[in-house]
Amino acid sequence: MMKFGCAILLFGAASMLLVSQSDAQQKRVSPHDQIYARVGGKLVSISYGRPNSKDRKIWGGLVPWGKAWRTGSDEATTLVTESAIKIGDAEVPAGAYTLYTVPMESGATKLAISKTIGKWGIPVDEKNDVARVDMKKKELDKSVDQFTMALVAEKGAPSATLTMAWEKTELSVPITAVKK
């Protein structure tokens, strides 16, 4: 258990160091959270901003269709993985990445995994994308006011599910350990 706690602290510290000094001067407007799970015994963590809807139209409004969105608020959403994983059908080597989303009104919303890290906002440069993967979209019965991400894994399982919920939409994609 001590080993797990140390790993979480190291990943948290690494995530915070990814923001450059000039970006650190930007002012956060939303609360932030870090989620994590063990996938195939290795730690996967995501740090992100959690904006509220504030009675705004989210999908197709604040977050426009077909355009890159930072998948949260403030600095870019950061994924850190201790070992290679598959997100959807894309293999992602161990390391730190930025996650951003390209929401689509019809067709599959894409989750982009980018090598560009430590930026404020949306660091879109497709040549630095490791991959873009399709996300499953589901309509929710109740509206979610604050953007929420979760990594859900069964203890000891070689996989997890990344979910994102906001307004009346849930997006999800599987994450699995890469077998060596």
What can be said about this structure in brief?
By secondary structure, the chain is mostly beta strands. The protein is 11% helix and 47% strand.
What can you see in these coordinates?
The protein has two helices and nine strands, in the order H-H-E-E-E-E-E-E-E-E-E. The chain is mainly beta. The protein has one domain (2-20, 27-177). A nine-stranded antiparallel beta sheet has the order 1-2-3-6-7-8-9-4-5, covered by helices on one side. A hairpin with a 2-residue loop joins strand 1 (32-39) and strand 2 (42-49). The two termini are 25 Å apart. Mean pLDDT is 86; it is low at 6-11 and 15-23.
Q: What kind of assembly state do the chains in view correspond to?
A: single chain
Mean pLDDT: 86
Number of domains: 1
Please report the distance between the alpha carbons of the first and last residues.
25 Å
**Secondary structure tally: strands:** 9
Shape: globular
Largest sheet: 9 strands, antiparallel
Helical run tally: 2
Protein topology:
Blueprint: H1 2-17, H2 21-24, E1 32-39, E2 42-49, E3 77-81, E4 85-87, E5 90-92, E6 95-102, E7 109-114, E8 129-152, E9 159-177
Antiparallel strand pairs: 1-2, 2-3, 3-6, 4-5, 4-9, 6-7, 7-8, 8-9
Tags for this model:
180 residues; mainly beta; nine-stranded antiparallel beta sheet; 9 strands; globular
